[in-house]
Every structure is written in C-alpha cells, then in structure tokens.
C-alpha cells in the first residue's frame, strides 16, 4: 500500500529551509504525475504483502517452535551433561577418597613398623654397646694367660674356651654393627616413603576438595569455595587448560607407591624377625661361651691348685728324704772315721811283729788274727765308701728332682696367680651378661660405641708336650 500525496502549505514554505525546496518540488511533480498503479495492481500488491506477511508468520511460528524445542533440547542436554559431570565428579571423589584411605592406612602401618624397627634398632645398639665390656674382658683374659711360663704354655681347654668366647663376641659385634647399619638404611627408606605417601595424601586431599567445590557450584553457585575461591573465571573465548595425566596412570602411580610401601613394610618385618633372632642367638651364644670359659677356668684353677698341692707335698717328701740321706751319709762318714784308729792300730801291730827275729818270724795265730782284723776293717771301710758314693748319687738325683719340683712349683704358682687374676674378672663378665638380658631403657648410644678392641683374634698357640 502507497501513501496518499501531501500538498505543500504556502505558509509552511515560507518558513522552510531553502535547501529543501527542490525536494518538495520533486515530490509535488511525482504526486501530479499519472505514472501510478491502478486499483487492481494496488490490491494485488496488498495481497502479495499480506501473503508474505502470512508466510513470515508461519515461518516465525515454526522458528519459535524449533527454538523452543532447541531450548528444551539444550536444557535436557545441559541437565544430562551436568548430571553426568556430577556423577563423574562423585565417582572421582569416591575413587580418590578410596585411594586416600589406602594411603592413610599404609602410612599408619608404615609408621608403626618404623617405630617398631626403631625400637628394635635401639635394643640392638644397646646389645652392641653391652658387648664392649665382655669383649675387652675376653681379650684381657687371653693376654693374661699368654704370660704363663713356658712349661704352662699349653693349648688347654681354658684357652680354647677363651678364644671361642672372643670369636663369638667379635662376631656378635660385627653382626650387630652390620644389622644396625642395614636397619638405619631401611629406616631412611621408610622415612622417605612415608614422606612420599603423605605428599600423595595431601595432593589427593586438595583434589577431593577441588572436585567437591566443583560439585557444590551446581547447587549453590554463590557459595564461597574452600580452595578455588581465588581462581579467575574463564572467558568464553578462553580455552581451558587440558590435563596431561591419564586416569590409568594416575591410579597406577598410587598403586605402585602403595606396593613399594608394602614391600618396605614387609622387608622391615623380615628385618625385625632376623634381628630378634640374631639378638637371641647372640645372647645364648655369648652366655654359653662365657659359661664355658668360666667353667673351664674354674676347672683348670682347681686342677692347678691340686697339682700345686701335690708338688708341694712331693717337694716336702724329697726334702725330708734328702735330709735323711744327708744324715745317713754323715753317720757313715763318722763310722769311717771311727775305723781309722783301729786300722792304724792293726797296721802298727803288724809292722811291730814284722820286726821279730828271723827265728821267731813264724805265721802264728796272732798274725792271722791281725790280718783277719785288718781285712775286716778294710772291708767295712770299702763298704762304707761304696755306700757313701751310692748316697751321693742318690742325693744328686734327689736334688735334681727337687730342683725340677721347685721349677714346676714356681711355674704352677705363676700360672695359678694368672688364672686367679682371670677369675677376679669373672664377676664383671657375669654382670655384663646379666645386663644383656635386660630390656633396653635409656638413650640410644652413638653408632660404633661397641667393640673398640682390635678385630684380629688372639693367635692360637701350638700344643706343648709336658715333661
């Protein structure tokens, strides 16, 4: 439909802008011209416009319906998408919480095992420190008995027991030192693992809280976030940063960490078991070797005391025998001197009677009696001389035996004195062994406090053949 022409008002033209005058004249010419549509054409145009308007209305209605359906679809998609995201968030929170629970349990178990191993390590350190005294005593005993006289330098049961005790103590110190070093290294690994587990727990706590914040945003968008309150909002044109991690690897890494922690825990349990067994074995072995050495030393001391008494008794008997032989020898010498005067008298008598005249020089009974008396005196004196020589030989033999007894008695006295010195420190050894059975209480001794003596065991002596 076209608008009807409008005539210009002369009064209005007087006040109109001079620049608009050509335009008004063109409109006036157009309105007065005959080049305009007729009535049928005018109606057709109107019908055409109406038809187009009706089509536009239909199209608009269809668009509105499609838009409504699209909005409904978008709302359903948004609802489904939000529901799916929420479900995934809840599932992720549950999975993360489950892993965190496993981590927390493993941390607790690892911490308990750490404390248990640490306490046992302290007991082992106490046992190591407690071996220092017995080890020094064992070495001191071996050194004391090495000062025995040559006659007593035999590889007896006491020396075997003392060397066994020393080797057991030395091995105990070495084994305890090695176990303590291994326990320290394992404790460091457990401590490092506990830190890693705690870091993973902290990360999972943060992840759970962030996922929970995301979940709470749907219900209450205006709720202050626990961890994400300072995070800037993303604009429509900003592309969100895509995570690089893979869910399977995320769980696998935590599972690997849990497996490593479990292996450390199990290794700590085995280490504790071995350490307990070692401490028990060391206690029993040290107690047994200590009792064996003390028993052998007491037995040897009793034997030495008995031999010493026997030597003293035999020495006394030999001394008495020597004194008696000396007295007999003196008596024989006196008898010998007593025979000298009668011998001289008989000899003088025979010499006097040899001066008889030739006629009177006959072998009469007097001469025979004098010769018999002389022969008897000479025979007696020869017998006394032979007996004296025999007594001298016996005295020499007895004196040699006495000297041997004196030397042996001196050596036995020295040996008994040294064994008694070893006996004097038995009480210290027994006290140390008794303290080893006590439970640990107090501060941890520094590493390397036990076993300050040389690692070389005393040299084994060769057997000595006694006289």
Tell me, what's the shape?
A: rod-shaped
Q: End-to-end span in angstroms?
A: 158 Å
SS elements, strand count: 0
Low-confidence stretches: 1-18, 436-467
Structural class: mainly alpha
Give the percentage of residues in beta strands: under 5%
What would you say this structure looks like, in words?
- With 467 residues, the chain is mainly α.
- Helix content is 78%, strand content 0%.
- It has eight helices and no strands.
- It is rod-shaped, with a radius of gyration of 65 Å.
- The N terminus and C terminus are likely disordered.
Which helices and strands, and how do they pair?
Elements: H1 10-15, H2 21-32, H3 39-130, H4 132-145, H5 157-219, H6 247-353, H7 365-424, H8 426-436
Helix pairs in contact: 3-5, 3-6, 4-5, 4-7, 5-6, 6-7, 6-8
Descriptive labels:
78% helix, disordered N terminus, 467 residues, 8 helices, disordered C terminus, mainly alpha
In short:
The chain is mainly alpha-helical.
């Amino acid at each position: 439909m076209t608008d009807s022409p409008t005539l210009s008002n002369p009064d209005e033209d007087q006040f109109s802008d001079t620049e608009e005058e050509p335009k008004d004249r063109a409109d006036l010419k157009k309105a007065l011209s005959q080049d305009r549509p007729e009535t049928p054409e005018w109606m057709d145009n109107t019908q055409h416009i109406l038809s187009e308007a009706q089509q536009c209305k239909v199209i608009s209605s269809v668009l509105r319906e499609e838009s409504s359906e699209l909005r409904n679809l978008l709302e359903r998609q948004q609802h489904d998408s939000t529901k799916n995201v929420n479900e995934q968030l809840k599932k992720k929170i549950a999975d993360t919480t489950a892993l965190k629970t496993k981590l927390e349990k493993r941390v607790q178990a690892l911490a308990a095992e750490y404390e248990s191993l640490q306490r046992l390590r302290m007991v082992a350190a106490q046992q190591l420190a407690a071996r220092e005294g017995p080890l020094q005593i064992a070495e001191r005993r071996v050194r004391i008995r090495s000062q025995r006289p040559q006659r007593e330098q035999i590889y007896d049961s006491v020396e075997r027991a003392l060397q066994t005790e020393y080797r057991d103590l030395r091995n105990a110190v070495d084994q305890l030192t090695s176990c303590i070093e291994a326990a320290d290294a394992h404790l460091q690994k457990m401590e490092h693992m506990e830190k890693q587990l705690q870091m993973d727990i902290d990360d999972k706590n943060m992840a759970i809280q962030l996922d929970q914040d995301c979940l709470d945003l749907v219900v209450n968008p205006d709720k202050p976030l626990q961890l994400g309150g300072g995070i800037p909002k993303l604009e429509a044109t900003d592309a969100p940063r895509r995570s690089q991690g893979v869910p399977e690897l995320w769980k696998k890494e935590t599972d690997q960490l849990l497996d490593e922690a479990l292996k450390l825990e199990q290794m700590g349990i085995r280490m504790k078991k071995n350490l307990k067994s070692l401490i028990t074995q060391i206690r029993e072995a040290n107690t047994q070797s200590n009792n064996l050495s003390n028993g052998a030393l007491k037995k040897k001391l009793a034997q030495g005391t008995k031999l010493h008494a026997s030597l003293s008794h035999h020495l006394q008997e030999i001394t008495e025998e020597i004194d008696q032989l000396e007295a007999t020898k003196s008596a024989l010498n006196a008898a010998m001197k007593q025979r000298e005067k009668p011998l001289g008298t008989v000899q003088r008598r025979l010499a006097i009677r040899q001066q008889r005249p030739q006629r009177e020089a006959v072998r009469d009974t007097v001469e025979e009696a004098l010769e018999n008396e002389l022969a008897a005196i000479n025979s007696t004196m020869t017998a006394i001389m032979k007996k004296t020589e025999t007594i001298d030989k016996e005295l020499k033999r007895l004196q040699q035996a006495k000297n041997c007894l004196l030397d042996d008695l001196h050596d036995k006295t020295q040996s008994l004195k040294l064994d008694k010195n070893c006996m004097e420190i038995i009480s210290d050894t027994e006290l140390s062994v008794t303290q080893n059975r006590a439970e640990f209480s107090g501060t941890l001794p520094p590493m390397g406090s036990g076993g300050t003596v040389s690692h070389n065991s005393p040299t084994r002596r060769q057997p000595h053949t006694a006289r």
